């Protein structure tokens, strides 16, 4: 009965939303038919929001990156904090111990050797993705997730990996501190937090878009270490209360 | 000359540092709290751009009288709450730092999506902090409802972005009345129900009983004073500046808030535990304050918001303290406890009487203005408010009499009959109780003292947020 009611409720809400939005009078644009001329996104594409800046917004070849890290960098800092506080919640609530969860199937030789080959490749691709975040699709969040996936593999195959895990705490804190310090330099030198104060360079070059790639590398490291910490916490058990 | 972004960034920075140096996290917490509390008073009014991009292309923080009052209230109350619950903090100092950053961001930001991010930060920290009492089932309940609420809010702003083309709150406040009826309807409903979960309005508040009736000395003042005030302030911002509701939808929203008020006040008369009574009273106040914001009584709402925040700070922390020392907070068993602790008893009594709105206390001035405002709308709402206040008076005075007078009924009340119940002789609670009590009495005798200030605070609510230079959009 409960399930029936919830399904019914979902349909009622869906019908309500659909009937209100799908109406010629409602001015809700159809997919792909949005008139961008009076939307902020057009200005992001044209890159002409502010011509008086010393380094106008010409650096980043990937528009998504310039929106995420440059125009709305403060949101990204907030998203990092959401991930950070979630990781912290996992660590606090699982009462993380030192013991690694013992799997029913012991890691055998083939797994160990295979993981050693694959983790290297995954790590390289992950790092490539966040270093080239301002040039190609990708960026800090997917790159960090890839790093965490290689950590998961290491975890499954290596019994003693946990002892090396403490470095992630330092990495997590240090990259967060660095992002904020870079932001504060902008605040004190240019009166605006997270101001992009480095020269933008030439589009398409690795060293371009000013602060954006540096921030993205830090974001990638932070996301990677946060997710690795979550994985680490989920895979341990016991310990003192 | 302090940039308000520091109020958000400093707690974050300290939290990141705290991950690396876990042993110092508690000192980092208090360092951050004190620093923020000092900085708050040096913030100047204006619009602060982030990343150097002018709004609406970048995010900006808006400090007008209203949000300035908001950050002062939040940072001061947060410091006081952490001092009250200092012993309970333990490993939770980093989530506390992050929740401070989130709460400041919620009040300061002038961007709809940025608000969502800070809303998430603040609520996730609240989930974590609420696990302090060890009732994980209630936290899970809160988590599920809170996530649904914030998803509804997110859906609302997706529709706003698709139609208005910008996420800036000032843009929304200017363009909202130009949107079509359907869009207005759906956006108001989604944002209202998103915020109503945290604001404890009735169909969305099933989490409150589990969380609020199990609080300890840290979470009690934190949730009932800091989090509650923040969400009321935000609610006021959204439904006074940005979204104007009219027609049947307005009636439905008003009905929801005042039904919450009456229903909670009625439930409070039926329980005997201090914390449970205060929980229901909090829900009731939530209904009253949000309702006042909806009918455009920003001035009265802010008056009552201050009244509620300080009264609940004292009352909830006292109740939590009683519970922690006796593992029960039933009123019958705690009869006469204030004879032993007259200072706390004084603060508790004044807070309760002020919350009811008796003359001579600050609350009377607030209630008087509330009724005045309500009479401008129609005659049903003041009647409902008076009925609710009457119920409030009944259970609070019954509770106060029990807590001051030891012994059974018809028995002569003597000192000997004082119960075995005890409290921690917390210096902070006594000081806070006495200070708040005196403030309430001062505010009752000289209402002009607070009146002008609150008048200034609530003025921005009457205008739309249109400080943008012309021609940007």
From TrEMBL, chain A:
Signal peptide: none
MrpA C-terminal/MbhE domain location: 52-94
Compartment(s) where it occurs, according to its Swiss-Prot or TrEMBL record: Cell membrane
Keyword annotations of the record: Cell membrane, Membrane, Transmembrane, Transmembrane helix
InterPro entries: CPA3_antiporter_subunitB, MnhB, MrpA_C/MbhE
Superkingdom in the source lineage: Bacteria
Keyword Transmembrane: yes
Primary subcellular site in the record, as a coarse category: membrane
Transmembrane segment boundaries: 80-97, 109-131, 137-156, 177-197, 203-221
Residue ranges annotated for the Na+/H+ antiporter MnhB subunit-related protein domain, each copy included: 110-227
A Gene Ontology cellular-component term: plasma membrane
Membrane topology: Multi-pass membrane protein
Similarity annotation: Belongs to the CPA3 antiporters (TC 2.A.63) subunit B family.
Protein's UniProt name: Cation:proton antiporter
Organism: Petrotoga miotherma DSM 10691
Lineage of the species this protein comes from: Bacteria, Thermotogati, Thermotogota, Thermotogae, Petrotogales
TrEMBL record, chain B:
Membrane-topology annotation of the record: Multi-pass membrane protein
Single GO cellular component term: plasma membrane
Pfam families the UniProt entry points to: Proton_antipo_M
Swiss-Prot/TrEMBL keywords: Cell membrane, Membrane, Transmembrane, Transmembrane helix, Ubiquinone
Broad class of the protein's primary localization: membrane
InterPro entries assigned: CPA3_Na-H_Antiporter_D, ND/Mrp_TM
Ranges that cross the membrane: 6-21, 28-46, 66-85, 115-133, 140-163, 183-203, 215-236, 242-264, 276-295, 343-365, 377-397, 426-446
Domain NADH:quinone oxidoreductase/Mrp antiporter transmembrane: 110-390
Subcellular location: Cell membrane; Membrane
Record family assignment: Belongs to the CPA3 antiporters (TC 2.A.63) subunit D family.
Name of the molecule in the record: NADH-ubiquinone oxidoreductase
